From TrEMBL:
InterPro entries xrefs: PAP2/HPO, PAP2/HPO_sf
SUPFAM superfamilies, per database record: Acid phosphatase/Vanadium-dependent haloperoxidase
Protein's UniProt name: Undecaprenyl-diphosphatase
UniProt xrefs under Pfam families: PAP2
Domain (Phosphatidic acid phosphatase type 2/haloperoxidase): residue spans on this chain: 125-239
Signal peptide residue numbers: none
Keyword terms, alphabetized: Membrane, Transmembrane, Transmembrane helix
Length: 263
């Protein structure tokens, strides 16, 4: 009888140990799966926001004027400031690229991706796409009204403009929407190579749109840098929000390709 009781106690202790160990491993998995990326995201967001605040302060004080003027003049023919450097076809290409950051293109792309997600059955992710894009446009417009910086008058503009200069809405919204769309669409794409491809293409588009605004003389370089910082911050906030909602079962879980079998 005593031997049976001892075995029963040992089995009970072993069972508790296994449950405890499984719980520890589960906690570690959750930490690795959610907490570490979240903490990194918070640090990056804080860095971008600090950089934007510092740059905005320098712009308001006029400390960036020399840099802004030097870059714009370097991209123009010294004999004719209305003529950007490079052949005519390059200027046309810059106009085509800058249109990729315009309201019409970004709105169409957002609605198209939202429709694709809806048809795939990812309705909740679709709403994240729509809300993030609409919110980004609102924030961009508000900041332009707050700062009210004048457009460059140093060189003739290579495109028509209607709003204030700081921050660049083309740069901010191309970064915000392209990166957010890439991050949210990557959630429903299981292949990691495709996820990485989406993020690389989105980043490249954002950079090219911003550079085209400087080349066409419609933005000071610091406008574009500020737009990139805010756009990347906006995309990170929504990516982190999607992960948080996923952990609570509010949005569809991220798809990922299965781990390779262990030998």
């Amino acid at each position: 009888m005593s031997l049976d009781l001892s075995r029963s106690r040992l089995n009970s202790i072993a069972s508790r140990f296994r449950r405890t160990r499984a719980g520890v491993f589960a906690d570690r998995f959750i930490f690795n799966r959610f907490e570490v990326p979240t903490l990194v995201g918070i640090v990056v967001i804080a860095a971008f926001l600090w950089g934007f605040a510092h740059l905005a302060s320098e712009v308001l004080e006029g400390d960036t004027n020399a840099f802004d003027r030097a870059v714009l003049l370097a991209l123009r023919n010294p004999a004719d400031l209305a003529d950007p450097i490079g052949p005519g076809w390059f200027e046309g290409m810059a106009r085509d690229i800058t249109a990729l950051g315009g309201v019409a293109v970004l709105t169409f792309l957002t609605v198209a991706v939202a429709g694709w997600l809806w048809m795939r059955g990812n309705g909740r992710t679709m709403w994240l796409v729509l809300l993030s894009s609409a919110g980004g446009f609102a924030v961009s417009h508000l900041l332009k009204e707050v700062f009210g910086r004048a457009r460059p008058d140093l060189v003739p503009h290579g495109a028509t403009v209607y709003t204030a200069s700081f921050p660049s809405s083309h740069s901010m919204m191309s970064a915000a929407i392209y990166l957010t769309l890439a991050a949210l669409v990557a959630r429903v794409e299981p292949r990691r190579r495709v996820k990485a491809y989406l993020l690389v293409v989105a980043s490249l588009l954002s950079v090219l749109v911003g550079l085209s605004r400087i080349y066409l003389g419609v933005h000071w370089p610091t406008d574009v840098i500020a737009g990139w910082a805010l756009g990347a911050t906006w995309a990170l906030i929504w990516w982190m929000g999607a992960r948080w909602l996923e952990s609570r079962g509010v949005v569809e879980p991220e798809r990922d390709e299965p781990s390779s079998p262990q030998d």
